[in-house]
Write a structure and sequence with these properties.
single chain, 903 residues, alpha+beta, Calcium-transporting ATPase, cytoplasmic transduction domain A, Rossmann fold, Calcium-transporting ATPase, cytoplasmic domain N, 4 domains, nine-stranded mixed sheet, eight-stranded mixed sheet, 48% helix, nucleotide-binding, transmembrane, ATPase_P-typ_cation-transptr_C
């Protein structure tokens, strides 16, 4: 038999223990056998290895290769700027790697945080004497002495209990303290047994003795720790997209390099000259500024989110939020305020709100309010502060708000236990001794013979009893915890059974109220196509009632799955159950919560999980994005999470999702911007080889664009504000790539070609004005050549200034797009202008970048190309809007599939 099925004496015997505890010899033996009562720590990755990994991911390897090729090219053909390019690429790798490492430096501390919840020292009985020992020295069979305020250091079975109540929220997620006793239990699940105390929980009232039966990693606490440390975090959607993008960039660059190497061979170029040309082409197609721009964009998004009370611990999680399709949310402390409050009362055959008590009718309700104010086990600390059961704190607070501040001395008590399901306290009052009773209606009502009507006592007939039972059922249906109250003036002579002939005073319904802003947040999630699923350790009735109040459940019969039912479900059954439009999970354990997350991920959902307790940590880590509560959350939950809500406000999740959705679109905006300039950087090389003209753009000038003038405007695009319609559209499909054919066609086949035409036209414009003719060679230091390459570079930068405004919106026209709302873009444009002026008109700029001053006619020559690109892009956007060329952009995946099948 399991230990919770045994009697207290049998439980002690099964562990070879007794009322006097264990002897020192046995303790030493068991400590050697079972080990210390500690949570094992996983071997952490060394800081050096973690640092090295930031420089060895796929895109970084591409940059390493590009740098290596640049240095090799410098050895074969010195003076072409390849060495400078190589050092610049190494600088990009170093800066990005160090920045990413700094952002990720907060190593996982989940196991260490778990240890912090365990008490340092505990009281035990050993060899018949009460001793104070370190918690990590406990062994199975030790006899613990517990009282109010103690943390439970190990899994143990109660031997004695006196009005004992425990808070299991950190393990089971249940919001209400639970009564515990030493009687044998018939339930199968040990964690639900009334005689079991779990490590990591705490005693909120009463006292008792318990025998330890599991320590360290063998406790339920330890099992959660084991689950947490063995849980593998999936790569975020953005990480997967960056990996795909890296492969695409590498493949494209290598393909172009190889193809044009063979083209050069075919047209008779010298091998080394052709090889250096191929290397230059490869390097020109690697957007060196992409990785730091993505990293800085994500970092700045985290700063914006922090201002909206969402602290991001893991950079890629910023974008993951935007693609979230399901939020699995805990109830207690997340959707609710994690405090008990009186919601409704039934007094004198009427349903009332708490604020309707007191006032002129205080005397009619005085007996009920006095019972709420006096019948408890709370302790006064720090003035009027009360310590103990939150339910009793709520009752006293309700009585005090209505003006009932009595302090009659307590001279006796009949404590609460599981059989009686009620408690009574005896007080000395000006009217004599009075007994106040509260508890479950089924145990209080049979002992009542009278009730209160208009401030007077009247007999309680069958009709009155039925009215009370109906009122109790109505409250229960609302998810309220219902307590019955009664009292009785006692005669001076003692009685054996004082809890009889009671006067019924009323029912009180308590709840853990929802956060006021949650309902609007749920509505916004629904509008954004995000499914919200409640997963809680509370009772199903309570869970559904709260779900209705916040708009999470609106139908008459939502699907409700409890822990027992979930245990019997196969993987397929669970995945089918999750198809329900409205589903609530109640009485769910820590491992089960993670099973739900895994099932949703198998259904290709991007899953966000909220939570605050130890029991939430494995699911938080397994989810695509874990969201912990900053105030009420345990250290374990915070360390396992990707995001922390600083204000514990569910509504902050919606704001963070809005920011996250903007991140993906913003990355595509600056990808379009960055990739566009690749074409006017590549085409000069092609023209140089194919048409035997002077090289229109040097490597160092390409570098001036990629890592100079383009960086700040690109970063400005990365921090664009979310679109007004962002939260009215469903989440993007996971199949929607950062780079698709539409983006490439726009960047390479449209905008890039226009920029290339402008750059080459400016190059030939200067050459023609200087008297150059086709076939004439120009030395690299010839003034005319320097001016021509300067014109090519200047035209590219001018076109990119227009392009940054073009890329702010993919479909909306320029006149309908706010132009001056992004200070970073405006600052970037100012910096671009200052940089190109410095490059063109200062001696050091000429020396570093191989340029020479150009006159105003060159700038004027490029202006029509700038205007032409703006006009042509406006025409393209108008055609897209007019003929709905891409109608499936924001439809859910299933809708797109059905449409395709019909076609």
């Amino acid at each position: 038999m399991k230990i919770h099925h045994l009697t207290a004496a049998e439980a002690l015997e099964s562990l070879d223990s007794g009322p006097d505890g264990l002897s020192d010899a046995i303790i030493e033996e068991r400590l050697h056998e079972y080990g210390f009562n500690r949570i094992e720590e996983t071997r952490k990755q060394s800081i050096l290895l973690a640092f090295a990994q930031e420089f060895l991911h796929f895109f970084a390897l591409i940059l390493w290769l590009a740098a290596g090729l640049a240095f090799f090219a410098e050895t074969q053909q010195p003076g072409e700027g390849m060495q400078t390019l190589g050092y610049a690429i190494l600088g990009v790798i170093a800066i990005n790697g160090c920045f990413s490492f700094w952002q990720r430096y907060q190593a996982e501390q989940a196991i260490a945080a778990l240890k912090k919840l365990l008490p340092q020292q505990v009281k035990v009985i050993r060899d018949g004497e009460l001793s104070l020992v370190f918690a990590d020295e406990l062994v199975p069979g030790d006899l613990l002495v517990l009282q109010e305020g103690d943390n439970i250091p190990a899994d143990c079975r109660l031997i004695e209990a006196f009005a004992l109540r425990v808070n299991n929220a950190t393990i089971t997620g249940e919001s209400l303290p639970k009564g515990r006793d030493a009687s044998p239990s018939e339930v199968e699940d040990m964690t639900q047994s009334r005689n079991i105390l779990l490590a990591g929980t705490s005693v909120v009232a009463g006292e008792g003795k318990a025998v330890v039966f599991a320590t360290g990693m063998h406790t339920e606490f330890g099992k959660i720790a084991h689950t947490l440390k063995t849980t593998v975090k999936n790569q975020s959607p953005l990480q997967l997209q960056i990996r795909r993008l890296s492969r695409f960039v590498a493949a494209l660059a290598l393909l172009l390099g190889v193809v044009f190497f063979f083209v050069g061979q075919a047209i008779g170029l010298h091998f080394w000259q052709n090889f250096i040309f191929a290397i230059g082409l490869i390097v020109a197609n690697v957007p060196e500024g992409l990785l730091p721009t993505v990293t800085l964009s994500l970092a700045m998004a985290t700063q914006r989110m922090a201002k909206r009370n969402a602290l991001i611990r893991n950079l890629p999680s910023v974008e993951t939020l935007g693609s979230t399709t399901v939020i699995c949310t805990d109830k207690t402390g997340t959707l609710t305020q994690n405090r008990m409050a009186v919601k409704q009362l039934f007094v004198e055959n009427r349903v009332l709100q708490p604020e309707q008590l007191g006032g002129d009718s205080l005397e009619h309700h005085a007996a009920l309010l006095a019972g709420a104010a006096l019948c408890h086990n709370l302790k006064h600390v720090e003035g009027e502060a009360l310590l103990g059961d939150p339910m009793e704190v709520a009752l006293v607070a309700m009585a005090h708000r209505q003006g009932m501040r009595v302090d009659y001395p307590k001279i006796g008590e009949v404590p609460f236990d599981t059989d009686r399901k009620r408690m009574s306290t005896l007080h000395r009052t000006p009217q004599g001794q009075v007994l106040y009773c509260k508890g479950a209606l089924e145990t209080v009502l049979p002992r009542c013979t009278q009730t209160v009507r208009d401030g007077a006592t009247v007999p309680l007939d069958e009709s009155g009893r039925q009215s009370i039972l109906a009122a109790q059922q109505a409250m229960a249906d609302q998810g309220l915890r219902v307590l019955a109250f009664a009292y009785r003036p006692l005669p001076p002579t003692p009685e054996d059974d004082a809890e009889r002939a009671l006067i019924f005073t009323g029912l009180v319904g308590l709840e853990d109220p929802p956060r006021p802003e949650v309902a609007d947040a749920i509505a916004q999630c629904h509008a954004a196509g995000i499914k919200v699923i409640m997963i809680t350790g509370d009772h199903p009735h309570t869970a559904v009632a709260i779900a209705r109040q916040i708009g999470l459940v609106r139908s008459a019969n939502p699907r409700v799955v409890n822990g027992e039912r979930l245990k019997k479900m196969t993987r397929s059954q669970l995945q089918v159950a999750l198809n329900a439009p409205e589903i609530v999970f109640a009485r769910i354990g820590a491992d089960q919560k993670m099973h739900i997350v895994e099932a949703l991920q198998r259904k290709k959902h991007i899953v966000a999980v909220t939570g605050d307790g130890v029991n939430d940590a494995p699911a938080l880590k397994k989810a695509d994005i874990g969201i912990a509560m900053g105030k009420a959350g345990t250290d374990v939950a915070k360390e396992a999470a990707d995001m922390i809500l600083l204000d514990d406000n569910f509504a902050s999740i919606v704001a963070a999702i809005e920011e996250g959705r903007a991140v993906f679109d913003n990355i595509r905006k600056f990808l379009t911007y960055i990739l566009t300039s690749n074409i006017p950087e590549v085409i000069p090389y092609l023209a140089f080889v194919l048409f035997r003209i002077p090289l229109p753009l040097t490597i160092i000038q390409i570098l001036a664009v990629d890592l100079g003038t383009d960086m700040l405007p690109a970063l400005g695009l990365g921090v664009e504000k979310p679109d007004a319609a962002a939260m009215t559209q469903p989440p993007r499909s996971q199949k929607e790539a950062l780079i698709d054919w539409r983006l490439l066609a726009r960047a390479y086949g449209f905008l890039g070609l226009i920029e290339a035409a402008a750059a080459m036209a400016a190059f030939f414009f200067v050459l023609e004005r200087g008297g150059w003719h086709y076939g004439q060679g120009l030395h690299g230091q010839h003034t005319l050549y320097l001016q021509a390459t300067t014109a090519c570079l200047s035209a590219i930068i001018m076109m990119q200034i227009a392009n940054v405004f073009i890329c702010k919106q993919r479909q909306r026209g320029l006149l309908a797009t706010p132009i001056f709302d992004n200070k970073l873009i405006l600052s970037g444009i100012v910096l671009e202008i200052l940089l190109i002026l410095a490059i063109v008109y200062t001696p050091w700029g000429n020396a570093i970048f191989g340029t020479a001053p150009i006159d105003q006619e060159v700038w004027l020559f490029a202006l029509p190309f700038v205007a032409g690109m703006l006009v042509l892009e406006e025409i393209r956007k108008w055609l897209v809007r007019r003929f709905q060329l891409f109608p499936f952009r924001h439809k859910p995946p299933r809708m797109r599939k059905r449409h395709a099948q019909r076609r």
